[in-house]
Amino acid sequence: MVKKQLIMEKALELFAKQGFEATSVQQITEHCGISKGAFYLSFKSKDELIMALINQFMMQFTSDIDYVVKNSNTDELLYDFYYTSYSFFLQHSDFAKVFIKEQIQSFNEEFIEKIRYFDRLFDEIILSMIERLYGEETQEIKYDLGYCIKKFMGMYSELFFYYNFQMDIPLLVQSLVEKTNLIAKHMTIPFISHEFYQAYKKQVNEVELTKKDILEMIDQKLEEMDMSIEKESLILLKQEVSSPTLAPVLVNGLLENIRNHPHCKWITYLLRSYFKL
């Protein structure tokens, strides 16, 4: 295992038990069985480690949800969206709990910008889902509907993360699908207008990735991977970014090869956007 990933996994175990503030670098290094010097070769500080964990969590969630929205059948899309979201939260419950409980204490600018960035990506994914599901019928209300979907997810997550209720995910998802469809069908007075949404977008720093950025990220991922079908596919995708020759169906097949690799979820999401797939 790459040492950086080992530190992240072991630190997460401690954060889940003790919280961010109560966990020291010394405790992390002892739990990992490494020296402080080895820790600081991977992370400049505990705050940088926490940001790396937030990044990893949000990148995996965003890429998983984006894939579902782009690939589920329309009849199952809304169910798959909610089901994938809650399944992800439960699968990563240790981090989700500590993150949700402690994020309000972290008001540094880097943290706020990071959360805004991923929140913005999530907004776009939800809007694309609404357009797939309802088309022109919801043009006037789609921003309000998207906001309602996000708040549904947050409100019902609290029952698990704050009160430790056992969640019947299929029942919850069926309930949320019904609520969402009712709002989409019957809402007549939207509050969030197109102009309102555009003004909100301007407050979030957009990240424009260039071809050079993509290639550098691919190189970084290749260094972390052992030789495998996933690594071979990523090498071919790097070649496609540098010099496009493949048909979209072949590019999509290569992306399918890498999307479930733990080091490739985010680069898969970025490449899908880059190739417009």
Task: Give the arrangement of secondary structure elements.
Layout (H helix, E strand, L loop, with lengths): L2 H16 L6 H8 L3 H7 L3 H26 L2 H18 L1 H10 L6 H26 L7 H20 L7 H18 L7 H8 L9 H14 L4 H14 L5 H11 L6 H11 L2
Shape: globular
Question: Given the structure, what is the number of helices?
Answer: 14
Largest sheet: none
- CATH class division of the largest domain: Mainly Alpha
**Structural class given helices, strands, pairing?**
mainly alpha
Give, in order, the helices and strands.
HHHHHHHHHHHHHH
Number of domains: 3
Organism: Lederbergia graminis
Protein name: TetR/AcrR family transcriptional regulator
Domain HTH tetR-type: 1-61
DNA-binding region: 24-43
Word description of this protein:
The protein is mainly alpha-helical and 277 residues long. It has 3 domains: 3-44, Arc Repressor Mutant, subunit A; 49-201, Tetracycline Repressor, domain 2 (Orthogonal Bundle); 211-275, no CATH class. Helix content is 75%, strand content 0%. It has helices spanning 3-18, 25-32, 36-42, 46-71, 74-91, 93-102, 109-134, 142-161, 169-186, 194-201, 211-224, 229-242, 248-258, 265-275. α12 crosses α13. The radius of gyration is 20 Å and the shape is globular.
Key features?
277 residues; mainly alpha; Arc Repressor Mutant, subunit A; Tetracycline Repressor, domain 2; 3 domains; 0% strand; globular; Homeodomain-like_sf; HTH_TetR; TetR/AcrR family transcriptional regulator; HTH-type_Tx_Regulator
Concise account of the structure shown:
With 277 residues, the protein is mainly α. It has helices at 3-18, 25-32, 36-42, 46-71, 74-91, 93-102, 109-134, 142-161, 169-186, 194-201, 211-224, 229-242, 248-258, 265-275. The protein contains 14 helices and no strands.
